[in-house]
Amino acid sequence: MKIGFFDSGIGGITVLHQALRFLPNEDYIFYADTLHVPYGEKPKEEVRQYIFNAVDFIANQGVKALVIACNTATSIAVEDLRKKYDFPILGIEPAVKPAVQNCEGKRKKVLVLATNLTLKEEKFHNLVKSIDHHDIVESLPLPGLVQFAENFEFSEERVVPYLRDQLSSFDLKQYGTVVLGCTHFPYFKNSLKKLFAEDVDIISGSIGTAKNLKRILETRNQINDGTGEITFFKSGYKVEDKDTLTNYKNLLAMLDDLV
């Protein structure tokens, strides 16, 4: 059986990329709900319905595990999804814990970049409250990065001015770690490096999610020796257009240079 990956758009490919590093011989389904992207700026209940519709579709394909490769979808739906389905469902959350651990000794702050909906959710606030005992975590929504990614616009000439404008009110020298709290954001790691000091760590939760996926499958004795095939879906339809498939493969190749 295959492993399912789900996101509102192409951001989840950054998590799939990590899974391919740890589980290269598994077969995968990647489902992007491109008809309704972006999730982060929409009403919560509307997004919940999109998520459940998508996961129903993925479940019907027959999967042994599902990764919700979207911080927004994880924050508002992962617990209820786990109650409905009998296969393991993994979410992803901003890597606040390792960021705080990294910065406390350096007397530096943590900056979490995410979508509006992720940052508004109780799940995120509870996470920060449980870890941030010295009030060093700050956050900023960057919805424009989602749009850049979905438009396949990754040029630093376009992205860096946007980031510089959004970060203009922050003293960037105060931060020791930047947390990429949206799976679309790792595509822009090099652009972010242009603005922060060289010793600032820029991290996401993707590696932790991929490691956890491998651990769960090993525990269940469900590691396969497959072909590494990826079947792509967009809002309920199998992707067969060669240009789109090429674009997805190019994204995976681009991420090889950002690891």
Distance between the termini: 28 Å
Sheet of most strands: 6 strands, mixed
- Helix segment count? 11
Structural class: alpha/beta
Anisotropy-based shape: globular
CATH architecture designation of the largest domain:
3-Layer(aba) Sandwich
Uncertain spans? none
Number of domains: 2
At CATH level 3, the topology of the largest domain is Rossmann fold
**Rg on CA atoms, Å:** 18 Å
- The helix-strand sequence is EHEHEHEHEHHEHHEHEHEEH
What's the total count of β strands?
10
Query: What is the topology, as strand order, of the major beta sheet?
Result: 4-3-1-2-9-10
Strand content: 15-25%
CATH class of the largest domain: Alpha Beta
What is the average of the pLDDT values? 95
Q: How much helicity do the residues have?
A: 40-55%
Pfam families: Asp_Glu_race
Catalytic activity: L-glutamate = D-glutamate
EC number: 5.1.1.3
Function: Provides the (R)-glutamate required for cell wall biosynthesis.
List the helices and strands and how they pair.
Layout: E1 2-7, H1 13-22, E2 28-32, H2 44-60, E3 63-68, H3 71-84, E4 89-90, H4 96-104, E5 109-114, H5 116-120, H6 122-131, E6 137-141, H7 143-150, H8 156-166, E7 175-180, H9 189-193, E8 201-204, H10 206-219, E9 230-234, E10 237-238, H11 242-256
Parallel strand pairs: 1-2, 1-3, 2-9, 3-4, 5-6, 5-7, 7-8
Antiparallel strand pairs: 9-10
Helix pairs in contact: 1-10, 2-3
